[in-house]
Amino acid sequence: MGTPVNIIVGSHVWAEDQELAWIDGEVSKINGKDVEIQTTNGKKVTVKLSSVYPKDMEAPAGGVDDMTKLSYLHEPGVLQNLKIRYELNEIYTYTGNILIAINPFQRLPHIYDAHMMQQYKGAPFGELSPHVFAIADVAYRAMINEGKSNSILVSGESGAGKTETTKMLMRYLAFLGGRVATEGRTVEQQVLESNPVLEAFGNAKTVRNNNSSRFGKFVEIQFDKHGRISGAAIRTYLLERSRVCQVNDPERNYHCFYLLCNAPQEEVEKYKLGNPKTFHYLNQSKCYELVGVSDAHDYLATRRAMDIVGISAKEQEAIFRVVAAILHLGNIQFTKGKDVDSSVPKDEQAKFHLKTTAELLMCEPQVLEDALCKRVMITPEEVIKRSLDPLSAAISRDGLAKTVYSRLFDWLVDKINSSIGQDPNSKSLIGVLDIYGFESFKHNSFEQFCINFTNEKLQQHFNQHVFKMEQEEYTKEQIDWSYIEFVDNQDVLDLIERKPGGIVALLDEACMFPKSTHETFSNKLYQTFKTHKRFIKPKLSRTDFTIAHYAGEVQYQSEQFLDKNKDYVVPEHQDLLCSSKCSFIAALFPQLPEETSSKSSKFSSIGSRFKLQLQSLMETLNSTQPHYVRCVKPNNQLKPAIFENINIMQQLRCGGVLEAIRISCAGFPTRRPFFEFINRFGLLAPEVLEGNVDEKVACRKILEKKGLKGFQIGKTKVFLRAGQMAELDARRAEVLNIAAKTIQGRVRTHYARKRFIAMRKATVCLQSLCRGRLACKHFDQLRRQAAAVRIQKNIRRHEARQKYKKLHLSALILQTAVRSIAARKEFRFKKQTKAAIKIQARWRCHKASSYYKRLKKGSIYAQTRWRGRIARRELRKLKMAARETGALQEAKDKLEKKVEELTWRIQLEKRLRTDLEEAKVQEATKFQSQLQEMQTKIDETNAELVKERATVKKVIEEAPPVIKETQVIVEDTAKVEALTSEMESLKALLESEKQKAEEFEGKYKEAQEQIEEKGKKLEESEKKVQLLAESVKGLEDKITNMESENQVLRQQAVSITPNKFLSGRSRSVIQRAVEAGHIPPERASTMTQDNNNVLAYWLSNASTLLLLLQRTLKASGAAGMAPQRRRSSSATLFGRMTQSFRGSPQGVNLSLVNGGSSVSGGAVESLWQVEAKYPALLFKQQLTAYVEKIYGMIRDNLKKEISPLLGLCIQAPRTSRASLVKGARSVANTAAQQALIAHWQGIVKSLGNFLNTLKENHVPPFLVRKIFTQIFSFVNVQLFNSLLLRRECCSFSNGEYVKAGLCELEQWCYKATDEYAGSAWGELKHIRQAIGFLVIHQKPKKTLDEISHDLCPVLSIQQLYRISTMYWDDKYGTHSVSSDVISNMRVLMTEDSNNAVSNSFLLDDDSSIPFSVDDLSKSMEQINIADIEPPPLIKENSGFSFLLPRAD
Predict the structure, then answer these.
(1) Which of 203, 209, 1041, 1229 is an active site residue?
(2) Is 439 a known active-site residue?
(3) Which residues pair with 344 in a beta bridge?
């Protein structure tokens, strides 16, 4: 522990505190044997130097999972470690092989689900985080491997969670040793279901717990030679009978009374019950209900549990009738009778309850009254009946109630045991002891005395076990331990149970004397044990006595010791219940033998009987290998997240944990592996670590250099005596202080030099500024002088320029005046010349105009004459052409009608085109023909018109010229002009009609093109509809096929053992094929689960056969549909095969092997499919199960192969401290790194070999991808779960190692290509993100949003919380995420815990088959098997000549 030498000023220590038990602080002053401490809460305290303990400042932030790993194994260190882990929801902690379980007072389902049980199954003890499953697993493995029975002792005070822990232990044992249920309930299920029944009749609410077990329970789970549960037995101890009649406020009586009062109404009326407040045995306390608990619901649950454990409905009715009778019995009040010292029922209410009790017990009311109010005394002379006074009658009533309830409870236990059944051939068992913890109340009676006596016995057993474990540890490490003393409590046990003269013996002796009272009993104790160091007589009491137990002193009140110790049945009560008409009640009180059936009461002691039971229990425990679970209640408020230090320290003392620590401290309380010891104390002797030295030798040299004595060096650890760790830490602190001072000196020198350099630099800078200022002033003066000279020069230049400008301006003015006079003279001359020219032009124009007018007049006259002549000629021509106008008009009308008709037809075609495509095409054809006819007619008409014009022209030319002057009549000219204009309009109309016709023709062409496009779309739609119809047809076939297949029991195929995959007929076929040389003998060997080469061969062939069968079979509902035909190719092997099958009425479809669609040119002909009948479907189902079974075997073989390597890859090998000194790289470190790489390379090698095996056997790539995807998922689950369960794996350096290994896997995936690896690399997302979080720097700066969305989006809050709290940096000493992030995670976890979904932080391995037959069929490549050449084996065999090409 700590010694005054080790405590110096500045040391961090623990000091006692009345409120917190222990408080940490820093030593500020030492005055002799007193020390002044500055506590963390700001106070200063002065305590004795010998009462303080050193504090480990280098303890992990998340605590240690095993308190033997603590540097200082003392009370404050243990308490602080438990508190740290409890705040992180780590409720389990080891102390060696002892498990400490702190009740969280909240549901934590994620640490008890099936995933967690699977993780702890077979895991070495201490490898995973502490858990109650680990204790159960160690007990089970020890029983299987050593063939010896084991026991698990669960103890703790009321409310600490013993019952729940026991349930979890039995759940896990049932998980390990359970068997598949065939008929009814299994043994383990009945054991688990017996808990509600025992809790209903043996549990009650106490001050500290709402469901406190008021009896001890030892469950023996028996196993057969195969490790399966074969039987069980439940043994109970010391039921608290006094609670039936006496209840303290605010406690409750046993649950069954309240359950029956809240039963269904018909049950309540049947037993004449009511509100619990109306019954004397229940209304002594004001507590009738429990918060959050429904008694009505629990009543139904208890009845269901009774059904499960084999209690019949008749027996259940009798049980609750007895419970109701006890309630009514308690309401029978007595008053004085007519005779002296006699008693009778007090009033009508008491008589009613008396009558109801008699009815429920099925006995006579008067007999019941006599049994309660009278006693029969037998003397040699006569039989005397004596009446009891009201007080004695009430005592008799309570005695009857306690006796009946005790017998009922014993019957329930016996019934459960007989229902479960015991295995007489079982040679090994695991016992789970759920026993009450040490109790010390304000008022302690006989029950507390027996309970503490039990705990003393168990504590002695516990101490012996701990001492034995210490011996085994020392023997394992081969160190000397012969001088270690063992702490024993045998003196207390002798005080209680010694014969003669013990407290129990004296109590039995006092009970045998009728006149003995508790005063005489107490005086006897005082006289007998007045010199005993463990027995104390209180000063202020005459009847109390105090015993100094291992957990502290307990003062007992002896008032009711004698009454509670008596365990005899009153003869009147025995006779009453034996005569009951109810066989169940009569069976509870069997008839006593003749020699014991006299009317005198035979004495029996509860204390003696309990001592015998306890002795039997200890014999059972001594014959088994014990394991201990100490349950601790963190607070009395029964609320989560409250950790009361003083309360927990008391429980640790009562649970013997501190006693175990004292035993450890008697030997070597501090044990450190060589690696950790050198890491921590290597700086005390750095010269020892130079070079490649042995760690063991280095540790010894360090200890010898510091002059320590009494230490031991084991095979793997350093063992230090109490105080030596603190002394080494003090020496280490001195070295660190000297180093710190040296560093401070160097740093201060550096800072001083830095300040000097800065000051010198500032001085130089100041001088430079001053000199620069002076230079600036001198420069300014020079600049002023230069500016003055420049100003003078500019002024003089300005004055000269002003004079020059005035002279220049005068010259310009003079020149301007002279030039303006000359310009005016020239302007006047030019003006006169222009006026003369203009007059001349006017005159010449007049003369030309006069001449032009005369010439124009003569020209017009000549033209008029000539035009008249021409008009007369044209008139004659028009008269000739007038006859042609009518025909043109008629043609025009016809054309208009045809155009209108065509327009109407086009519009009609547009309206009907979307409805009837065929009609549109016909109309369009008709319209085109008519249009062509019209075009032809128009062309003919134009031809005739041209022809007629030519004829008229010819006639006119041939006619003799008639030259005759005709007077031009204006009227004819007007007609001619009108005809001419009309002719022009007709021509224009004709041209417009031609244009319209051309437009209609263009629109027709566009309509034709649209019709063609829509026709194409219609054809495409028809094709799609046809494809859809074919798809629907295929789906209907599949549905019909599936409906037929569902009639086959697939389990028949799945249940076939690996050696029974092939039927006898198949075996014979294969054998004949082997003998004929068609199949290699090595392939036809019996398949084993470990031969991957054979399994891959059969997987490839079976999958191909399944695809052929999938294409060949069809449902019976599609038998009448004709299949499509394909072109035949008889020149190849399978073409010949298909032709050879044409004679068959149904045929075989061999068109496809690895594809699901039709094969184009050159493919084989698709023949009739076989109609699916029941045998074919059965064979297909069996073949499907065969493929799935082989797939699962191959996958599981690879899992088994890489599983041992995964366990070695998750944790990096430890690096020696010597390798870190002076930057040297040790050979051991290099070897460790090579070993780790070898593990990962072993996995990569296994994957590569496995892939090559699958390739060689031509396993489809689809199946290969599925296998590796599931394998990588398995790797992800195993690595990730191991990371979450093992704190030593959550380190920075370990993250780097695992990251390097994952790179090896990524490289393998890259080499394997996507064809075979597929998405396997993506399955490692959980472990990749977790490792990425471990190796990332500056974690405290990361926010929760960045972590959960950017760094680790796949991980849940529970997983992130666990990694964050378990992380530790063994390389740089950095911290995990900030406390704010941890708090936010807790809030989110609390919110998520309310959801019904399981919030387990572990992953589950998916072992299902990840594909179906359709998936396999769709994934295959298309292969034209018609192009496959027959193998040489078939070519050479004459039996297959029909398959070879014919020489046609």
Answers:
(1) 209
(2) yes
(3) 335
Per-residue pLDDT tens for 1323-1336?
Answer: 999 999 999 998 99
- Using CA atoms, how far residue 720 sits from 94, 630, 723, 727, in Å, is 20, 27, 8, 11
Encoding tokens for residue 408?
A: 């009922």
Q: Is 1412 an annotated catalytic residue? A: no
User: Is the per-residue pLDDT at 158 higher than 90?
Assistant: no
Q: 980 an active-site residue? A: no
Query: Do residues 1083 and 1097 lie in contact, with contact meaning Cβ atoms separated by under 8 Å?
Result: yes
Would you call 628 helix, strand, or coil by DSSP? strand
Q: Where does residue 925 rank: exposed (0-12), middle (13-18), buried (19+ CB within 10 A)?
A: exposed
Which tens digit of pLDDT belongs to each residue from 602-629? 556 788 888 888 888 888 888 888 898 9
Distance (Å, rounded) from C-alpha 1273 to C-alpha 601? 73
**Predicted pLDDT of residue 989:** 81
Tell me the mean pLDDT in the region 157-180: 81
Instruction: Tell me the per-residue pLDDT of 808-867, one tens digit each, with 9 for 90 and over.
Output: 999 999 999 999 999 998 898 998 899 989 998 988 899 899 899 889 898 998 988 898
Look over the chain and give the mean of its residue pLDDT values, rounded to a whole number.
80
Residue whose C-alpha is closest to residue 559's, from 537, 545, 543: 543
Among 353-367, 862-876, 1399-1413, the minimum mean pLDDT is found in: 1399-1413
Exactly one of 439, 659, 1188, 1323 is catalytic; name it.
439
Instruction: Give the CA count within 13 Å in the CB-facing half-sphere of 893.
Output: 5
Both structure tokens of 1388: 């989110």
Q: Does 212 participate in catalysis according to the annotation? A: yes
Would you tell me how many other CB atoms lie within 10 Å of the CB of residue 105? 16
* CA dist., res. 301 & res. 263, Å (int): 11
Residue of 11, 68, 155, 163 marked catalytic: 163
Catalytic residue among 437, 607, 655, 656: 437
600 is catalytic: no
Distance CA 671, CA 689 (A): 21
User: For 344-360, how does the pLDDT look when each residue is reduced to its tens digit (9 = 90+)?
Assistant: 898 899 999 999 999 99
Q: Are 30 and 8 in contact (CB under 8 A)?
A: yes
As a dihedral over the C-alpha atoms of residue 785, residue 791, residue 797, residue 798, rounded to 10 degrees, the angle is: -170
H-only helix segments in 1141-1291: 1174-1209, 1227-1256, 1261-1285
Q: Among residues 25, 63, 96, 159, which one is catalytic?
A: 159
Beta bridge partners of 101: 92, 631
Q: Would you say 877 and 956 are in contact if contact means Cβ atoms under 8 Å apart?
A: yes
Q: How confident is the model at residue 1140 (pLDDT cuts 50, 70, 90)?
A: very low
Predicted TM-score (pTM) above 0.70: no
Count, residues in the chain: 1448
Q: Is 209 a catalytic residue?
A: yes
Structure tokens at 486: 């063992």
Joined together, the tokens standing for residue 869 give 């002549």
Q: State the catalytic residue, choosing from 11, 158, 1149, 1399.
A: 158
Rg (CA), the chain: 57
pLDDT of 103 > 80? The answer is: yes
Indicate if 579 belongs to the active site: no
DSSP secondary structure letters along 1060-1091: GSS-HHHHHHHHHHHHHTSS-TTTSSPP-TT-
Contacts 24+ apart (CB under 8 A), 109-113: 109/1398, 109/1399, 109/1400, 110/1358, 110/1398, 110/1399, 110/1400, 110/1401, 110/1402, 111/1400, 112/168, 112/171, 113/1398, 113/1400, 113/1402
Terminal alpha carbon distance of the chain? 105
Cα dihedral: 1099, 1100, 1103, 1108 (round 10): -150
Structure-block tokens of residue 27: 């030593």
58 within 8 A of 116, measured Cβ to Cβ:
no
Question: What is the C-alpha to C-alpha distance for residues 722 and 664, in angstroms, rounded to an integer?
Answer: 9
* Collapsed DSSP state (helix, strand, coil) of residue 194: helix
Integer Cα distance of 1310 and 1321 in angstroms: 9
